[in-house]
Fold this protein.
Amino acid sequence: MRPEKGKRRRPYNVPASPPQLFLYGKIRSIYPDARLNHPIKTDKGYRYADVAIEIDGLNREHIKLDIEYDGQMHRYRKKQDRERDLELLRVGWQTIRVDKKNVGDVFLLIEEAIKTCQ
């Protein structure tokens, strides 16, 4: 059976940029279950996490983190990024945004996000 016109059966592959690949490799060294360009189903379709981490918290809470690398073009996309972050939050995903200035602090940002979720 074919999907309805305009609807996809499953998400498609999204290419990763070199900074996203670097971030993924760095995160995967500590979180081996991290996934690159992980599809997340929302009320508006699919969104793709640059790096997705799912963790079982101390209180048996399931923590879902989307780590996004914002390149130079993202300075013009603040409103769209905020709407995307809220869309993901509605389905239980917290977004962490990193760029070239704070990519070295990514593990600190992840730890802070985990603490706020517990």
Notes: Strands lie at 35-42, 45-56, 62-69, 93-98. The mean pLDDT is 86.
